[in-house]
Amino acid sequence: xxxxxxxxxxxxxxxxxxxxxxxxxxxxxxxxxxxxxxxxxxxxxxxxxxxxxxxxxxxxxxxxxxxxxxxxxxxxxxxxxxxxxxxxxxxxxxxxxxxxxxxxxxxxxxxxxxxxxxxxxxxxxxxxxxxxxxxxxxxxxxxxxxxxxxxxxxxxxxxxxxxxxxxxxxxxxxxxxxxxxxxxxxxxxxxxxxxxxxxxxxxxxxxxxxxxxxxxxxxxxxxxxxxxxxxxxxxxxxxxxxxxxxxxxxxxxxxxxxxxxxxxxxxxxxxxxxxxxxxxxxxxxxxxxxxxxxxxxxxxxxxxxxxxxxxxxxxxxxxxxxxxxxxxxxxxxxxxxxxxxxxxxxxx
Length: 348
Ligand SMILES: NC(=O)c1ccc[n+]([C@@H]2O[C@H](COP(=O)([O-])OP(=O)(O)OC[C@H]3O[C@@H](n4cnc5c(N)ncnc54)[C@H](O)[C@@H]3O)[C@@H](O)[C@H]2O)c1
Hints:
alpha/beta, Rossmann fold
């Protein structure tokens, strides 16, 4: 199934929503984003213009929305209003809101169509694309969910004006990842005419292309995991955001594969974009080196990309800057990590 990705401003967004061929709209929005943007979104005039039933639900901000209790409450409240199969769900917020809203859309009346208005950089380039939806369980993140592709993704970079620095850095971790997967994205990022709207669209389209080729993640969609195996480990070990963890995960990968060219490019991009990822988390938290490697290995061995008792599949970059998948055994990874962390200057 195809999803339409467009860059829009608030006016065009309103027209797009008016033009949806649906009898009613279920608008699910992050409560913080609602407070910031209710005037620009101007749902009142939209309701007048479309003469369709609009159900508005404000969800707790960010990750707090992705739980059973919110899922249950919102579903019951929507059902109480009286809906049918020709209602369309619109999610407006960061990745947490698109994840739960998409899951609500996938399960209400066994599946309603839906669209996304992502409001964080991370959700614009990643979470809103590709139809992975879900909520968290007490046993882990995103364990309850469904694949349910949105019809439209409306990207409006104006939302980024109010995004806190830490959330922006979170998104840039993923943007940097795309620039290693696709040389054209890197060149656009480094160009003097750098425009964030264009970069976001390029990243979103890159992911969308892989999703269209490989919806169930059996082949090329896996490239999107560049840096994520170590990144997920760092996310669990240290108080860093997902994007920051992916950034350090990529750097560690480049170090252990001894690719000085990629490390240099990475530093170059960070400098050009004036990003400040600070010191590597393992230097900030000064873990004992042997326990650091043991910890990392424990997470690596439990990663979703483990393909046998002894091996994990990693994404890496060819000399010509194209991604490929490589199976690496745990013993080799441990030796490389040991060597890496033995050097006192690691990551500085
Ligand atoms: N489905 C996928 O493919 C996919 C991919 C990556 C991440 N995710 C999920 O995305 C979630 C993280 O999403 P996220 O990082 O986009 O953010 P988020 O939804 O967790 O929101 C982070 C914070 O930013 C605030 N916020 C949102 N938009 C804002 C704006 N324009 N201005 C000011 N504040 C704003 C929110 O209120 C919240 O406090 C995680 O739950 C992760 O699992 C899903």
